[in-house]
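Students often ask why we bother encoding 3D structure as a string. The short answer is that it lets us treat folding as translation between two languages. Here is a chain of 301 residues written in the first language.
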Amino acid sequence: MRIVKGKATWIDILKPTRNDLEFLKKQHKFHPIILDELLHFSIRSRVEFYKTYLYLAYHLPIYDTNIKTSRRAEVDFLITKDTVITIHYEDLDAIENFQRAISNNKHFKDRATEDTGRLTYYLIQEILSSSMKQLRHIEENISYITQEIFKHREAEMLQKISYVKRDALDYSIISRPQEIVLNSLADVGRKFWGEEARIYLNDLTGDHYKIAQYLENYHQVIESLETTNSQLLSAKTNQVMQKFTVLAFLTFPVFLFTSLVSIDLIGQYVTGSPLRFWGIFFGVAITVIACLILFRKKGWL
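And here it is in the second language, the structure alphabet:
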């Protein structure tokens, strides 16, 4: 647990224990059900307004290199008139960045701890900034695919596109519900802090809207890349099938010749004279070579 005091106090708890809950229970009159929920992840993000405090469960996407997609992390807020308590279950860059900013910049600390409304605003703003940075790996993967898609590596690109498509979808599933949470916070926040908090809370919804716009653009680009790669793969498959068809056609005269020879009456006629045999053989060979030259000139081989 770490505590930063100013005009408003920030208490940050990593991996809460029963002792941490007892501390909060002694300091503030939080509902027992809310305190019990702090011991584990919340199923959904939400804002709840009580007479003397707000409870906010906020989810944010974090890229996991092991599964190659975004997963859900959580920050819970308990907000009173003079204290903001954050609870999280793993180390988060957003919280660490906020801690460093407060520790290294006295002017920012004074501004951020002016009241709990501003403290909540700057904390969530840092979380949104971290979420925006989490989009970088999606952008980098899209850029890589864009550069490599025309290098005749369609099968590899299909896998890359599938990974980035899943990542963008998982990110969206985590991020989009937070828009509802921030809109709810904007509504109850004005009741809790007063109308002066409106501009800060609306700014948070605006920052989240930027993330949603980036996601929408990425989805469109990924869909276009997937369509382009599918067309390239289909064209490549058609070319291979065309070559196999031409090769099958070239072998037809030889197959016909061997089939005719295998028939007793015709075989006896052909093999009865070496001159007839070699004449027909070279005729078939010339026909195959002529077709081969023609097909290469046409670009079919």
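Translate back mentally: Residues 88 and 247 are 65 Å apart (CA to CA). Keep this in mind for the problem set.
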